[in-house]
Amino acid sequence: MRRSDERIMVTHSGSLPRSQDLARLYGARSRGEDVSETELEELGRQAQHASVRRQLAVGVDIGNDGEARRESYFTFVQNRLSGFGGSWERPPTADADRYPLYARAYRRFIGAIEGVTNITGVPMAVGPVRHVTSRPIEDECAQLRACLDGATEGAFTEAFMTAPSPGIVVAAMKNAHYASDMEYLAAVGAAMRVEYETIVDNGFVLQLDCPDLALERHRTYKDRSLSEFLAFASSVVRTINEAIENIPRDRVRMHVCWGNYEGPHDCDLELEAIVPVLREADVGGFVLPFANPRHAHEHKVLSDWKPDDDQIVVAGVIDTQTNYVEHPEGVADRLVRIAESLGDPTRVLAGTDCGFESAAGGGRVADDVVWAKLSALSDGARIASTRLFG
Region 203-230: what's the mean pLDDT? Predict the structure, then answer.
């Protein structure tokens, strides 16, 4: 996994805008409607190529395919693993409970988006969970490689591919089969090992999307004790460590967040509270949000946390839930502060707080603004590089 040895490298957290036609098909399929799988695959391939081109054009160093071949950051696993069926409604977040007027307005906003993929009403585990086909992940990897080989705008310094944590699958896709959630977690971890290893075997960095390690405190565990949540988070990290035991540590980065939604977030757990859990993760780096107003100050935690010398931090310095285009000077200021807290600018990469379209069609930031924000990220990284590296 590349470090910022001579300048601050630029990356992001995964999902990028999909075309309207592609999002419409994903949304229809998530509602159980019949769609043309051939058309879906073709539009997905087109979106992969377009995403790579645009990332290169705005100066992304470490990029991906924008998750174009997936309906959302985690529900796509139902098409690769056995055992999922039926549906249930995820409980609302604690801040939605606290602010009912906000919750009503947010539901109206989501309801007004045509074709958005539903990640609140999701399948359950109704049978044994096993990995049944490697074709989709192999195809994703092959297509991303083809995009990179055919790019005329340059090349990424490195490419990554995302995959969901076993914990978010277990938390979001309810257990209706296993005797215990721990048994369910172990089964999902064993199944997802195939996805993880395939990504790395194809030459890409694996990014584990782990909102469960923070978000689920104010969702699934909002009415339970902190100790119960931390026990869950610890069990997830142990499961991850088992699932990636055959992968070199420096080929894995872990994305942790409090939920990719625009809301109060004043029920979020502090980063400091989950640091002991994160310390146990056998990964090469962490992707953390430091741009949004609720967590911008938490870069200071890095001073006491002191991630291992071989671990990097992808610092979220661009907010993925507002249409403000950050000023490059402001981006640079954030990067410098974060580098000072970590104590080593070579271990800091410039990134985004989260993905821009975690569920197809559900992005809150307009497509053209997304690319302006990523361009500002690149410009800010250049400014920060002059300050940090001379």
Answer: 98
Neighbours of 249 (CB within 10 A): 16
The span from the CA of 276 to the CA of 79, in Å, is 34
What is the tens place of the pLDDT at every residue in 266-318?
A: 999 999 999 999 999 999 999 999 999 999 999 999 999 999 999 999 999 99
Helix residue spans in the chain (DSSP H): 20-30, 37-57, 94-98, 100-111, 135-150, 166-172, 181-201, 226-243, 271-279, 301-305, 328-342, 367-389
The reported pTM is 0.96
Residue 13 DSSP symbol? -
Instruction: Report the distance separating Cα 333 and Cα 310, nearest Å.
Output: 24
Rounded Cα distance between 160 and 178, Å, is 33
- Spatial CA neighbour of 207 closest among 335, 355, 53, 345: 355
CA-derived radius of gyration, the chain: 19
Residue count (the chain): 390
Contact 149/48 with Cβ under 8 angstroms? no
Phi, psi (degrees; rounded to nearest 5) at 191: -70, -40
Task: Spell out the residues 6+ positions from residue 277 whose beta carbon is closer than 8 angstroms to its own.
Answer: 213, 230, 233, 234, 237
- Give the 3-state secondary structure of residue 299: helix
- Cα-based torsion angle of the residue sequence 327, 331, 337, 341 in order, rounded to the nearest 10 degrees: 160
* Residue 15, SS3 per DSSP: coil
- Eight-state DSSP code of residue 113: S
